[in-house]
Amino acid sequence: MSAAWSRGDRGAGTVLAVAITGAVLTVALAALVLGSAVVASHQARLAADLAALAGAGRAQTGASAGQACTEAGRVAGLNRATLKSCSVEGSDVLLVVSVEAGLTRQAIARSRAGPPR
Hints:
It is a single chain. The protein has one domain (3-113). The chain is α+β, with helices and mostly antiparallel strands. Strands 1-2-3 form a 3-stranded antiparallel sheet, with helices on one face. A hairpin with a 5-residue loop joins strand 2 and strand 3. Helix 2 runs antiparallel to helix 3 (65-78). The chain contains 3 helices and 3 strands. It is rod-shaped and about 85 Å long.
């Protein structure tokens, strides 16, 4: 190999390594964001189901709609969710909860619970 040829390739490996590292970091960041969204979605669904069951259980004891929704909100809060809306239709409790899924995003879940039909 001549001296001119080897001087022209100096640093090429560094540029390639930086490019590959950047690509790997970008893919890893995308995977973390997607994973965070999936976890928040599961957490929201779980919190909504548990809160609806708690509210329906309270409603079946003869509690008012407000008391049933208060219990649903308490259970949602224990599961790191925020109760967005709650209503009682007959003996069914319908609600919507949200969970923080990132800096500006929220995972939303709806649930209904009541006695078997």
